[in-house]
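Final report, Chapter 2: Outcomes

The project's central promise was a pipeline that accepts a single protein chain and returns its three-dimensional structure in a standardized token representation, suitable for archiving and comparison. That pipeline is now operational. To close this chapter, we reproduce one record exactly as it appears in the project archive, with the input sequence first and the structure output second.
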Amino acid sequence: MKPNLLHVRIFVGFGFITLIVLLLGPFQGLEGKLGLSDKTAHAAAFYVLSLGLFASLPRIRRTDLAFGVAAFAAATEVAQTFTGRSGSFEDFGADAAGIAIAVLPAMVERLRYALRAAEG
């Protein structure tokens, strides 16, 4: 069976819910048990979330999705302060780095395309 857009969206939706639970639940320090630093785990999670959204919402511009993911990252850091955890600007920076790593290759390719078109 070939995956279709609905399957991708369901998969990304489950990943999104899992990320919310991990970020807001009592799982602080879990990344260390997986051999990752806190910042690496944040960057990786938001990189994967960004790529998943890029794949599941192909008609929405990647930069718009990236800004939405960044807003979600900021919201989770604020929400953590209400769940007994601590929100941090450093974690948001790691989240933003993961988002940027996901979106930058597409932006570079778009620039290359524009430059090729300008050359004729």
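Archive annotation: The chain has five helices and no strands.
This record, like all others produced under the grant, will remain available to the consortium after the project formally closes.
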